[in-house]
């Protein structure tokens, strides 16, 4: 390099400084190029290692999914349970697995209520060899991959944004889950080969402002009292459309106030229990003219029996290639206990089980979408599904309180939580 520089200065004596700068620039450019190549190689290596890691993770998940979906009884079914880490979903998944059906779950573990409870349910399911994919039902690519790995015979669709009052805080979550998510799932089921039969959770809330009791499946459902109810009613119309156009076999279940062990913390009986144990006041709503609110409380085990019976009796879907080849079943059933109980009676039962008197604030029900009463006519489910609820509220709440004390570690003697 010094000889080259000297030669260039002799040939072009008037520009030695420029030549030196040009030479330095060449050296700098060469060094920069080598540095960039080094960065590229490092990035390429990191990407390759990440690819191997993700591939291994994917292969592991695929293996777990296939194992979880394996049918272990004669004439069994392979069921995708959405919302599998939820209250009803975890119980249904467990019941199906225990009798030998293949079960794969999916749940997004959102924070509408404490996700740790959902993860505890997942741990319980994993102990019973049920795999739950963590993801959103709006993810079409993920759903397509799931259906590629497993040819599901049935879908138990229980994923939804629950709760009446929360809709006033976060209305978009109801549209995202209860409408957009439902459509995404139906699109995948429509395209699947073979198409699965679908059972999904509607709600007793669709009866809205009806005053005729008990509520029957033939009653009008065009007067929703909340956004939650409106999304469930929309779901019934949407599922009917997919049944009519694409031949999907669809069963909608209108649940009536489900309660029991592993339940949802946002439900009244759950929050009442927590507050009574902590010595905090509970809010008890009344309807107009000081009328007590009443609910058709339905124990989780009875709901599970109705869900499983709906899967067992679901006719086959008739579409292929996304096109309907013939009529397919479309059904809607009430799943309730057909014995409404007032909220003050619920509180009295909890007080007896907890051996603590509740501090009550009784106020008139605000205009938040709640309805004053629910009461199910279950004659259709009895006839078509053999549905027969057997657990009354005192029995069911006793079981719930026993689970609550055990799960949260409440010590009656100390009057505090052991795990706190």
TrEMBL record:
GO terms for molecular function: UDP-glucuronate 4-epimerase activity. It catalyses: UDP-alpha-D-glucuronate = UDP-alpha-D-galacturonate. The chain crosses the membrane at residues 34-53, 74-96. Its EC number is 5.1.3.6. Pfam families: Epimerase. Keywords: Isomerase, Membrane, NAD, Transmembrane, Transmembrane helix. It is found in: Golgi apparatus, Golgi stack membrane. GO terms for cellular component: Golgi cisterna membrane. Residues 79-313 form the NAD-dependent epimerase/dehydratase domain. Its main location: Golgi. InterPro entries: Epimerase_deHydtase (IPR001509), NAD(P)-bd_dom_sf (IPR036291). It comes from the Eukaryota. It is a multi-pass membrane protein. Homodimer. Belongs to the NAD(P)-dependent epimerase/dehydratase family. This is UDP-glucuronate 4-epimerase.
């Amino acid at each position: 390099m010094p000889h080259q520089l000297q030669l260039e200065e002799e040939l072009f004596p008037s520009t030695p400084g420029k030549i030196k700068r040009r030479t330095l620039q060449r050296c700098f450019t060469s060094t920069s190029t080598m540095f960039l190549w080094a960065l590229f190689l490092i990035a390429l290596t990191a990407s390759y290692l990440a690819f191997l890691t993700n591939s291994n993770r994917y292969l592991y998940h695929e293996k777990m999914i296939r194992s979880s979906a394996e049918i272990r009884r004669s004439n069994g079914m392979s069921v995708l349970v959405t919302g599998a880490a939820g209250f009803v979903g975890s119980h249904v998944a467990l019941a199906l697995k225990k009798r030998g059906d293949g079960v794969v779950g999916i749940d997004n573990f959102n924070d509408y209520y404490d996700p740790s409870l959902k993860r505890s349910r997942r741990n319980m399911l994993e102990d019973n060899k049920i795999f739950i994919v963590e993801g959103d039902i709006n993810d079409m690519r993920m759903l397509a991959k799931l259906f590629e790995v497993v040819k599901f015979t049935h879908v138990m669709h229980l994923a939804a944004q629950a709760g009446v009052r929360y809709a006033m805080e976060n209305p978009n979550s109801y549209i995202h889950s209860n409408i957009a998510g439902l459509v995404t799932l139906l699109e995948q089921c429509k395209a699947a080969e073979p198409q699965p039969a679908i059972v999904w959770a509607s709600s007793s809330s669709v009866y809205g402002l009806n005053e005729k009791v008990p509520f029957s499946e033939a009653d009008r459902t065009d007067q929703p009292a909340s956004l939650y109810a409106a999304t469930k009613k929309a779901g019934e119309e949407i599922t009917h459309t997919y049944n009519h156009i694409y031949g999907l076999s669809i069963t909608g279940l209108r649940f009536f106030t489900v309660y029991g062990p592993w339940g949802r913390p946002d439900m009244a009986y759950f929050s009442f229990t927590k507050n009574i144990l902590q010595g905090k006041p509970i809010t008890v709503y009344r309807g107009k003219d000081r009328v007590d609110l009443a609910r058709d409380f339905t124990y989780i085990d009875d709901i599970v029996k109705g869900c499983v019976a709906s899967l067992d009796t679901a006719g086959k879907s008739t579409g292929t290639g996304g096109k309907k080849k013939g009529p397919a079943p479309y059904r809607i059933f009430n799943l309730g206990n057909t014995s409404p109980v007032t909220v003050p009676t619920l509180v009295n039962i909890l007080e007896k089980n907890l051996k603590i008197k509740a501090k009550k604030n009784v106020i008139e029900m605000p205009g938040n979408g709640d309805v004053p009463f629910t009461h199910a006519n279950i004659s259709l489910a009895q006839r078509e599904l053999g549905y027969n609820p057997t657990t009354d509220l005192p029995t069911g709440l006793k079981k719930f309180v026993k689970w609550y004390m055990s799960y949260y570690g409440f010590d009656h003697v100390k009057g505090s939580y052991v795990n706190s």
